[in-house]
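Budget justification, computational time. The allocation requested in the original proposal was used primarily to generate structure tokens for proteins on the priority list. As evidence of use, we reproduce two of the resulting records. The first is shown immediately below.
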Amino acid sequence: MEQHAVEQHGKAEPAGLDVVVTTMASDSHTWNLVFLQLLLEELGHRVTNLGACVPDELLVGECRRIAPDLIVLSSVNGHGFHDGLRVIAALRARPELARTPTVIGGKLGIAGTGTPARQHRLLAAGFDGVFEEGGSVLDFQAFVGSLPAGSRALPTGAGPLPAGSGVLL
């Protein structure tokens, strides 16, 4: 039987995004991360799950090493707002991560669901999306679906989701 070699022309890019999913240093919850990982993988993305209680330096270092298309920070303990402000400053301080789409979500405060002022402050600090508990998974999926794979930055003209959009991250 004669075999023919198949020649490949061009460079095919893998579909989907490279996504880092993590909590912050004060958050020891993991089921939220498992849910996010499974959701994102079901949508065709490659996920690196850094796990719970991730120190800021480790998070920044791993994101620099991986160069993800998207960073997803999840909080369940209610300290996400304060931790998120600190972490986004560290991420944005690195030139190679300054434009990487980064979202935060879950239980971001201990006094219930978010206020527009809290969401605006997180967006102004550098987050591209804020998804608080009680929101829709569809909003998060729409945000993720709007990102081009491999670009490591938001498309030109793309802005953050409107404040109030949300999903439990």
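The second record produced under the same allocation is shown here.
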Amino acid sequence: MNIMLFHSAFGLRPAVEAAADRLRAAGHEVWTPDLFEGRTFDTVEEGMAFKDEIGKDELLKRAVLASAPYSDRGLVYAGFSFGAATAQTLALGDDKAKGLLLLHGTSDIAEGVTVDELPVQLHVAEPDPFETDDWLTAWYLQMGRTGADVEVYRYAGAGHLYTDPDLPDYDEEAAEATWRVALGFLETL
């Protein structure tokens, strides 16, 4: 598979490159665009402030420009938290998308969006301060109405960005379970 992997609000940190290497070792071609142009952050608050300073439209433009050269190949869009929201937006707008792998995040769904049974897999902590139960229920129902084929995996007790070993949220057991399931999902596409 050809995978476009977007970073979180922390920026393009070593954990994103490690995830890309893990995916490459499984035989996938992976791109990790740097939407923050080299900036990384130590706290989610700093990263979110920088994200807001750049603006949603500019970040989406950067993501589209990074993905465009490869979209004809049929991409799997993937991302971590903020990057998952970006991946979701792009996948729902790309009729050649092969799949959507969401790690730690989702996004609003534009009115009237439809897809043809797009395979979607979400991995999220339970509870998650950024992905509340009410939000996830509404998101799941809306994704189903778009025509997506959605699977949701919850990890009790894990922190929000539990796959990043350099953050306090890290949960090795949940992270390894996530990668096992995600790699299996990618094999089916």
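A brief technical remark on that second record: DSSP finds six helices and six strands in the chain.
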